[in-house]
Amino acid sequence: MGTHFSYKIRYEGAQSQSNHPNTAFNLLQTVLHAFMSSLLIFLSLEFQATLFLALDTLLVAVMWKIYLHPRYVLQRGNYHQFIFMGMHYIFAYYIGFIPYMISVWLASAYIFGNFALSHTHLAVTNRPLHWVEYALLHTMDVEPSWMCNWWMSYLNFQV
Predict the structure, then answer these.
(1) What is d(CA 27, CA 17) in angstroms, rounded to the nearest whole number?
(2) pLDDT in tens for each of the 159 residues of the chain?
(3) For residues 55 and 104, what is the distance between their CA atoms, to the nearest angstrom?
(4) Which one of 45, 100, 114, 115 is least enclosed by Cβ atoms within 10 Å?
(5) How many CB atoms neighbour CB 124 within 10 A?
(6) In whole angstroms, what is the distance from residue 121 CA to residue 49 CA?
(7) Count of beta carbons in the 10 Å neighbourhood of residue 58
């Protein structure tokens, strides 16, 4: 009966792994992983503006629901909130997975889209400012109209 490869490396001295049957597979797996990681990073940076409302907002909302909120509840000891989370997921079960995910995506795109519209395209300051001055210079007022006021819940009047 043969000896296991790791035994040979550990007790009989390090050998070249070129004799190991999985070396080609491991190399292929490493190269494929590096290629896919590079491709995902490239695509996420190249199409960041396009994917923001289409994908990023949904990923953030799902991460918030399944990781950040339960972690917050556990850290703060607000265990009664688990009852409301359970009720939320019971409701999600009854409406179905696809309608639930569509509603999560629409809500997250609405919230994060309005936040991005109000904050992200303004210039970044290099000098320290008082928070009031910073708020005045870096918060944008959107031109009011009945539709804009309703859509943004009057948050277009921030300053």
Answers:
(1) 11
(2) 444 444 444 445 544 554 555 555 566 667 667 776 776 666 666 677 777 888 888 888 999 998 989 999 999 998 999 999 999 999 999 999 999 999 999 999 998 888 877 766 666 667 777 878 777 776 666 777 888 888 877 776 765
(3) 12
(4) 45
(5) 5
(6) 12
(7) 19
Helix (H) or strand (E) segment spanning residue 25: helix 23-46
Residue labelled with tokens 């850290």? 75
Q: How far apart are CA 42 and CA 61, in angstroms?
A: 23
- At 84 the pLDDT is 93
DSSP string for 34-99? HHHHHHHHHHHHHTHHHHIIIIIHHHHHHHIIIIIHHHHHHHHT-TTHHHHHHHHHHHHHHH-HHH
- CB-based burial label for 108 (10 Å; 0-12, 13-18, 19+): buried
What's the rounded Cα separation, in Å, for the pair 57 and 40? 17
| Model pTM above 0.85 | no
> Would you list the domain boundaries of the chain?
1-46
User: How many angstroms separate the CA atoms of 143 and 120, rounded?
Assistant: 17
How many Cβ atoms from other residues are within 10 Å of residue 57's Cβ? Answer: 23
